[in-house]
Amino acid sequence: MRKEKTKLKKEKFETLKNVFFAVKIIKQCAPWYITARIVSMFGYWFFTGFIQEIWFLKSILQIIEDGRTFKEFAVVVIMFAFAGVLGKALHNGFDYIISTKVKIFYKNLNKKIFDKAVNVDMTCFENPDFFDKYKRATEVITDDHYDMFAYYFAVLFAGGITGVFIVAYVISIDPKILLILLLALPVVVIQAVKGKIEVKKDKEMTLHKRSKAYVKRIIYLKEYSKDMRTSSVFEVLHKRYKDAVENNRGVIKKYGYKIAALESMTGFFGQALPVAVAYAYATYRYAFKKNLALANFSVIMTAMSNLRDVVNDLGGAISTLKKEALYFGNLRDFLNYNSKVVSGTKKAEELETLEFKNVTFKYPGSEKETLKNLNVVFNKGETTAIVGQNGAGKTTFVKLLLRFYDPQEGVILYNGIDLREYDLQSLRERLATVFQDYKVFALSVAENVLCKEVVSDSEAVNVLAALKNSGAEGFVNRLPQKENTVLTREFDETGVGLSGGEQQKIAAARMFAKNYDLAILDEPSSALDPIAEYKMYESLIEATKEKTVIYISHRLSSAVLSDKIYVFGDGTVQESGTHDELMNKNGIYAEMFALQASNYKKEEGSVNEI
């Protein structure tokens, strides 16, 4: 019993925290948005529900019953006509403000979510729970939960104030009406229970919604189109989509009966029972006891009808706010996520040395260590090749160097200082990376190279130089608008598609457009044939003179041209030295090189035969 009470207290506390957070984040993203909602709702509720329909009605009937003059009647009519116009003006005027603030809120909250998403730890993208949290956080915008929260928050204020006035006015006529009003109180509890059930329902549907969204997203993406058309994978995906729909139907069915039953109870306690009792009581006093004036009889009848709507709306508002607050709770959890990779404060100076010292790392959820007691050193101006078979830990090495992850054991030293002490932005500005799984964006070639808008002549010159150094200059000059040509046709009919090798050269150009100390090329030629690969490395060696360069590849074209070679295997360094030294050792590297060289000769022979 005590545990249950503690749990309920904790839930109430969390709900309040979420409500305060929702108000705070809405105020941050769109100041005056909630205020505009409250004033607009107040203009509707108070001026219409109380001033016009109750106070005005009572005043008019009282004038008629007392046989007052037409002048007094006209004054009251004019006053209430003015009140009606004022209420309408407030409602419409602030509705206009709301429509402008919605766009501001949408833009600013999206920015907060996007900023957080691009800065969370890389581990998050391998965690299904993170994707569920991200999905629920974005639902605040995509499913208009922010608007629902602001609307019902305004209902709570405006309806509450109006309700107080109506109750006070009715009680001034007959205090016993208060007892009848108590019959509607169960509505608040019922709505709260209903809100909890709806949150459970929505939470259970999250994973299935993500499955549907995944299928809907990839079904039209170009990179999946070939596999869709040349295999039966579409049937598998379509089945997953149908399963998600069916699972969601099951969830809706599971909770639907309970929600429907609670809705019926709300109707009974919130509308049928109190209104019927109030009508019967007022009729009894007016028709049988004859101790209730016509004006008061009419006011009680109208007030109870209006109060019924107010109580129902207040019950619905409290229930909905609790439900919407949970969505904002998901957003709060997401925005308050604390990264495990924390930026230091030290500004990264020009690179002199980089050292991995006894570094051990394994991915979250994995039992096997990807890197084990790794020791490697890189000096300024050196060109180093890291080679090895797939799965040797080469790409993980890059992720640790860029601090996408931190090692569980050991330390990475930049100029003799722990990498974790450096400001992340200043550190990454010193590094230029060409990733194995490079991407081009639906932007112009120049924007793809610079990774920002080109706004000056010097930046345009920088783009051209980068394209030349990466070997992309030739094919870019043949494009319709050269470096201003948009890549892909997703948003531009005049856009162009590039081959894998061409895209890789655009990705490499990003490195040359950056003022860097250390270049890291992770399989930078995976889309090229062996001859084009060798030529690319020659160009890169020439363009990166006096720079520190790390080539990472399971192919050995880069190794021949490097000052030093590390051979990775099973998460550690198995051999190291120059190309000649390793060939003379006649070990793992020599065997790999001989095998690849024979494959290249076979490929050349096949070409000559053709």
- Order of neighbouring strands in the sheet with most strands: 6-7-8-3-9-10
Find the structural class using helix and strand composition: alpha/beta
CATH class of the largest domain: Mainly Alpha
Proportion of beta-strand residues: 5-15%
The average pLDDT score comes to 79
Low-confidence stretches: 600-610
CATH topology of the largest domain: ABC transporter transmembrane region fold
Number of domains in the coordinates?
A: 3
What is the tally of beta strands?
A: 10
CATH superfamily of the largest domain: ABC transporter type 1, transmembrane domain
Gross geometry: elongated
Separation of termini?
84 Å
Biggest sheet, in brief?
6 strands, mixed
Give the name of the CATH architecture of the largest domain: Up-down Bundle
**H/E series:** HHHHHHHHHHEEEHEEHEHHHHEHEHEEHH
What percent of the residues sit in helical stretches (DSSP H or I)?
Answer: 55-70%
Radius of gyration over C-alpha positions, nearest whole angstrom: 35 Å
Number of helices: 20
